[in-house]
Amino acid sequence: MKKLLFFLPLVLLFLTSCESSDPKNEVTVNAFQVNRIINTADNSIRMTNCQYAYRVDYITATIDITIPSLKLAETDESVSFAVTGLKLSSSSKTGLTYKASAPFTPVINGKEDSKYSVTSLSGIIFNNELKLNLEISSPSGTFKVFASESDAIYSFGNTVITNLRDVNADPFKREDIAYVFSLDPSKKTASLFIANAKFATLMPEIAMTFSGLTLEPTATGYKITGTDVIPTSNNIPYQKYIITDFNGTLENDKVNFSFVCAGTFKVDVTATMNSVTE
Question: What is the domain extent for residue 107?
Answer without folding.
Answer: 2-149
